[in-house]
Amino acid sequence: MISITHYCTIHNIDTSFIHALADEGLIVLTIATDGPFIEEEQLPDLESYTRWHYEMGVNTEGIDVIRHLLDRIRNMQGEMHNLRMRLNLYENGD
């Protein structure tokens, strides 16, 4: 687990942004006696959200929309891949 305080210090961001992401349900914080932490598996998403917010000015609601749309795109790409594979089976007569 990574300390939110440590992450914010390294990336020079405000902890309130991390808490806003957690309030929006975009990340899950683990609260310990020495502060909030985030699981390492969530770091790639957190880094994306941080870039979107600080480099592009996207608010937490916008981040949620972008995340949802990217998930839908990935799902559709997977469906298209599966449909192409099935179509190839029919076309090749296998």
Automatic annotation (TrEMBL):
Output the Gene3D superfamilies linked to this UniProt entry. Answer: 1.10.1660.10
Q: What protein name applies here?
A: MerR family transcriptional regulator
**Species for this entry:** Chitinophaga silvisoli
